[in-house]
Amino acid sequence: MQASPRKEALRNNVVQAAEALVSADGLGALKARDIASRAGCSLGAIYTVFKDIDALILAVNERTLMQLADQLSTFEVQQKADKVDGERWLVGLSHVYLNFAARSKMLWLALFEHRMSVGSELPQEMAEKHQMLFDFIEQPLAILKIGKSPEERQLLARSLFSAVHGMVVLGLEKKLASLSLEALKEQIEEIVSAAVRGLVTR
Amino acid sequence: MQASPRKEALRNNVVQAAEALVSADGLGALKARDIASRAGCSLGAIYTVFKDIDALILAVNERTLMQLADQLSTFEVQQKADKVDGERWLVGLSHVYLNFAARSKMLWLALFEHRMSVGSELPQEMAEKHQMLFDFIEQPLAILKIGKSPEERQLLARSLFSAVHGMVVLGLEKKLASLSLEALKEQIEEIVSAAVRGLVTR
DNA sequence: CATAAAAATGAACAATGTTCAATATGGGTT
DNA sequence: AACCCATATTGAACATTGTTCATTTTTATG
Questions:
Q1: Is the C-beta atom of A5 closer than 7 angstroms to strand D?
Q2: Which residue is nearest to nucleotide C8 (CA to C1')?
Q3: Residue-level pLDDT at A176
Q4: Are B166 and A171 in contact (CB < 8 Å)?
Q5: Which terminus has fewer CB within 10 Å in chain B: N or C?
Q6: CA of A132, closest CA in chain B: separation in Å?
Q7: What is the mean pLDDT of chain B?
Q8: Strand C contacted by B103 CB (< 7 A)
Q9: Alpha-carbon distances, residue A57 vs A19, A32, A68, B26 (angstroms)
Q10: Residue ranges of the HTH tetR-type domain (chains A, B) (predicted)?
Q11: Is the pLDDT of residue A166 over 80?
Q12: Which of A28, A171, A183 is facing B162, going by the closest CB pair?
């Protein structure tokens, strides 16, 4: 099933329109008619390039995930070049993640809102993208001399990511009331660096 | 605005019905007509005791939060009686949280799905309930001799909760594929205890 | 029992995702 | 240029769902 150039263009317009709408007002405000209007196509056209809105959201999320991967990748080459030690590398990664979430808040939130509201499993293509995120953590973990097998490091990478993710989610949720972005950054740094120290001095 | 006994009964029926439906099929499957049918009342009756479905979900979430608080409270008296040290106390708290989330998965998920999808701020009554969760962490943190002011401990409690929350969220999401409940428990224990060790040996 | 206040009802409306018969378009062939 | 047909596009129509409100039913009171 090859995509004709016309369909490809339409698909791009639709994804871009949806991305803009999510970015502006969040996933909950995404309406099929708004997408069509912004993409300059008819309502039905959306369904000629996506099975349903869910599939479209998945495409938007894939782009978001790629953008995040870009930032992490750029950061990775810097750290390697600078021969940064494992602890600071990991703390830096958490900062990159926080910055991305804060700057692309709605798109980043959509990544997780969607998974929760959908019963069906997300395609393994997406699962691989998530795995990719964990991979960025394994490098600095390998530098730290913790007595861990590769499998254990994999689990640990996942756990560290999840922990930072939790702090970012709950921290950004009520940024106004309690926590400035800077304070949140310090909190994340404190926990990450404490966890790393605790792991190495086992 | 006092609640008449009849309205009170209706309200209870509606909340119980909603809770049962969420518990069975998740927040996304909650439909006004199903609630009415299960509560044995008319569709319109719901709106005589709740402004809208959002307000009803808030009531369900409040009950869930209270159940969680109960479990944490029971655990707290045990730990005090047993004079458990701070690190094991904190690890135990994370296990109580994980068990609650795993056993009441849908209701627990509703706690967070809802907040994300609603733009309006959640009432401060609910915010206080959340604060209450953090308070359960401050006790064992106070036992550990970390050089921290009460305000810093408050922030730290919040951060630790968030970190554990993140591991539980992402851990339970794909329980089948990668992580058994027991393995998840071990992972959480490893991170929490490492963080605590890192904090005390600062 | 009569009557007013309160409560409950469910038909109707609005918003939204999805489908599909009808219409447009584009490119190849003569 | 004219014709044809496969393909793409359209938007009216339908299904689902939250919400409202005029109407009906129930309850309480004198």
A1: no
A2: B45
A3: 45
A4: no
A5: N
A6: 15
A7: 92
A8: no
A9: 8, 11, 16, 20
A10: 8-68
A11: yes
A12: A171
* A59 vs A125, higher pLDDT: A59
Residue B199 to residue A194, Cβ atoms within 8 A: yes
Residue A128 pLDDT: 84
Sign of CA pseudo-dihedral A102, A113, A26, A47: positive
- What pLDDT digit, counting tens, does each position of B171-186 carry? 998 754 567 999 999 9
Tokens of B34: 């199903």
Residue A193 clears pLDDT 70, i.e. is over it = yes
Q: What one-character DSSP code corresponds to residue B195?
A: H
> pLDDT band for position A12 (50/70/90)?
very high
| Residue B44 neighbours by CB under 8 Å, 6+ apart | none
Which tens digit of pLDDT belongs to each residue from B125-142? 888 888 999 999 999 999
φ, ψ of residue A50 in degrees (nearest 5): -135, 140
- Spacing of A47 CA from D23 C1' in Å: 42
Inter-CA distances, B124 with A173, A177, B11, B129, B130, Å = 14, 11, 22, 9, 10
Contacts of B179 in chain A (CB under 8 A): 155
Tokens of B101: 């989330």
What tokens does A110 get?
Answer: 């959509």
Encoded amino acid at B66, one letter: M
pLDDT at residue number B125: 80
B41 touches strand D (CB under 7 A): no
Does residue A173 sit at the B interface (CB-CB below 8 Å)? yes
Within 8 A of A127 by CB-CB distance, chain B residues are 174, 177
The verdict on A161 touching B (C-beta cutoff 8 Å) is yes
The residue length of chain B stands at 202
CB neighbour list of residue A4: distance below 8 Å, 6 or more residues apart: none
Query: Which chain B residue has its CA at the smallest distance from A159's CA?
Result: B167
Q: How far is the CA of A49 from the C1' of D2 (A)?
A: 33
Q: Which of residues 109-128 of B touch A (CB under 8 A)?
A: 109, 112-113, 115-119, 127
**pLDDT, averaged across chain A:** 92
